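JOB MANIFEST
job_type = single_chain_structure
chain_count = 1
residues = 109
[input]
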Amino acid sequence: MTLYLSNAFSLAMIPHGGLLKITELQDEQVKDLIKNPFVSVVGHKATADFISLLLQLEVAMNRIAVSLQEGDKVIVMQLQSRLEEGKILSPEELSSIKYKWMLVEVLEG
């Protein structure tokens, strides 16, 4: 089982299909989960910096493709508004946007 931390989720991450469980989390629940080893797959530096501030630990930018397997989990920090195309926000700009955390678990795959 691998635990990923991401700023996005795509069905392309589960190339063979599967059964997913999706749960909304609060900041403290995320902090508890990432006490375990995790792989950052946050694709933008400003977003990685913002998540680092939220979680009070270093989250690296790591723009890689992910192929989830049964038992894998992804904690997703999801912005609650759509950005303009090509817009990259600073950590200050990100802090003014509402967000929520989602835990995606691959139960079968």
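[summary]
The CA atoms of residues 13 and 67 lie 5 Å apart.
The domain at 3-74+86-108 is CATH 3.40.50.11170 (Rossmann fold).
exit_status = 0
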